[in-house]
Write a structure and sequence with these properties.
Elements (H helix, E strand, L loop, with lengths): L2 H29 L36 H15 L6 E3 L11 H5 L1 H9 L9 E2 L12 E3 L5 E4 L3 H18 L7 H31 L3 H13 L12 H20 L5 H16 L4 H13 L3 H26 L42 H9 L5 H4 L2 H21 L10 E2 L2 E2 L4 H25 L17 H7 L1 H7 L3 H19 L10 H8 L6
Length: 532
């Protein structure tokens, strides 16, 4: 073996150690997964104004699920296997005047009297089904106004995949999501979160081999990926964000391998992964377009064609499952703000003349977009304030982009591509670096703007800006140009380490439940600086 190969083998041992630590931590948390009832999350018995639930009057039944977001997915998976339907609940058809399809009746006395004369009853609720059972309740449901059937607001594709695993466990082991819920939830989280985490960290370590010039920068990146980003707290909960984040890393790695002349299997994998990221995190379709643009500029015509065709497969699956659920191509959450969401008894319904408090209604209660933008970047749910390592990412992306431009301007070929020579992996070319860093900055700008315009609640009760999680691998790789510079400075390494420790602190805060507010939010609330 060459000295270079010996060094790379030694780095592989460190990578293995870091990945093992991250996986062990995740498995331990999954083994003890349980919804914890914290006094601080509930209002006092004498408090009737704070928008938080009252303390339970009796001991809650233990559950390995956390709340509305993941329970809406679990409920759909259970309905698919146990009842063969996408319907997670039903409202009695006598409930008309005061519920879903009777919005007209609610505001029109003549229409109401006609319905009552026709035999309908003016009752408020008569709901039944999985989504209303103890331990399965969720606000993330819509009521079909014509069928009076409840559906999960979550796109059904991920739940369908989970249902596939549950079907195997139920039919071959006799397990039930009611009786063996602990075993099934834990095993599912291992399959859908921990195994992808291993793939994620392996892809990032392989990309760091191509992008970084110092071992310290490579090790820093992998430590940050395993412990210091939003991926870490969400590994114990069924969610779309972690799988989309892993898919982004896989797609990026596959594109780099395509650039290294790896054959058509790599652009196919890139398309499948990018498409899967897109259907789990719709704004990440920006990545789908960016990678296609990358392959086009690099002259990979055959690879581009294979990539596009592969993207269509998860997109077709996404649209197909939407159609199977609602007989239309758009998902249920596209109806936000309509009667589908704002039926009688819905969490999202605000009666006329009333207001609702809580982070779910932040901007609807008067928060300005400027304040919202501050808190989404530097405030209580900030991308930079909660994970300050992202400051390194921002500077590194800019530094990497300008360095790549300078390299190309100095005469390096714009079409040069990396290549493998024996056990040696050549660094990424200036052309590929320029595209990686500039496209990351452009996508990030677009995505931040999208959420500033389209979102209003920071992702609800959440450990951070979870909608932005899929950008994580891109920003981690963006750190490398700066980390290489800092590696040679004791002060630089110290500053980077402080930022890493601060990020791990934020991501380890309330590590038992990712569906809790960040520490900055709780601190600001305790000071009386915010009150949603």
């Amino acid at each position: 073996m060459t000295p270079h190969a010996d060094t790379r083998a030694a780095r592989g041992l460190v990578y293995t150690l870091l990945i093992g630590l991250a996986v062990g931590l995740s498995l331990g948390r999954i083994a003890s997964v349980e919804r914890v009832v914290e006094p601080s999350v509930h209002r006092a018995d004498t408090d009737t104004t704070t928008p938080r639930p009252a303390w339970p009057s009796k001991r809650p039944e233990p559950w390995p699920t956390f709340g509305s977001n993941d329970r809406a997915r679990w409920a759909l998976a259970r309905a698919l296997v146990e009842e063969g339907t996408f319907v997670v609940g039903r409202r009695d058809r006598t409930v008309v005047v005061c519920s879903g399809p009777a919005v007209l009746a609610a505001t029109n006395p003549f229409a109401a009297s006609c319905l009552l004369a026709a035999g309908y009853q003016a009752r408020i609720s008569s709901d039944r089904g999985i989504i209303f059972e103890e331990g399965w309740q969720s606000v993330d449901k819509v009521l079909h106004p014509a069928r009076l059937e409840y559906y999960s607001t979550k796109p059904p594709l991920l739940s369908l995949l989970v249902a596939g695993e549950y079907w195997l466990l139920k039919n071959y082991l006799g397990w039930s999501l009611v009786e063996q819920r602990w075993e099934i939830v834990r095993l599912t989280l291992v399959v859908f979160n921990v195994l992808p985490l291993i793939v994620y960290l392996l892809c990032l370590s392989a990309l760091a081999e191509r992008l970084a010039s110092s071992d310290w920068a490579r090790y820093y990146l992998l430590a940050a990926a395993g412990f210091a980003t939003l991926v870490t707290p969400f590994l114990i909960s069924l969610n779309n964000h972690t799988v989309a984040t892993v898919a982004v890393a896989v797609a990026l790695y596959a594109v780099i391998r395509t650039r290294e002349g790896g054959g058509l299997a790599w652009p196919m994998l890139a398309g499948l992964a990018a498409g899967f990221a897109g259907v789990n995190e719709l704004p990440s379709f920006a990545l789908v377009a960016a990678l296609a643009f990358w392959l086009l500029l690099a002259g990979h015509r055959a690879g581009l064609l294979v990539y596009v065709l592969a993207v269509l497969l998860p997109v077709a699956a996404y649209l197909g499952t939407n159609y199977l659920q609602l007989e239309r191509l758009t998902p249920a959450y596209a109806e936000f703000g309509t009667v589908w969401y704002e039926y009688e008894g819905s969490h999202w319904r605000i009666p006329e003349g009333q207001t609702k408090r809580g982070i779910d209604f932040a901007r609807r209660n008067g928060e300005t977009w400027q304040t919202y933008a501050f808190h989404l970047t530097l405030g209580h749910h900030g991308w930079f304030s909660l994970t300050p390592i992202m400051f390194l990412g921002l500077v590194g992306l800019l530094l990497g982009m300008f360095t790549a431009l300078a390299r190309l301007a100095s005469g390096s070929s714009i079409s040069d591509s990396p290549d493998r020579v024996g056990n040696v992996i050549a660094p990424l070319s200036g052309f590929d670096r320029l595209l990686l860093f500039s496209l990351t900055l452009l996508m990030s700008l677009v995505v931040f703007a999208f959420y500033l315009l389209k979102s209003d609640n920071y992702g609800g009760w959440s450990n951070g800006p979870r909608w932005l999680m899929w950008l994580t691998p891109l920003w981690l790789l963006g750190m490398l140009p700066l980390l290489d510079r800092l590696a040679g400075s004791r002060l630089g390494r110290f500053v980077a380490l402080v930022l890493l420790v601060a990020s791990i602190l934020s991501m380890s805060y309330q590590l038992w439940n990712p569906w809790r507010h960040p520490w900055i939010y709780n601190w600001m609330e305790s000071r009386g600086w915010i009150s949603y």
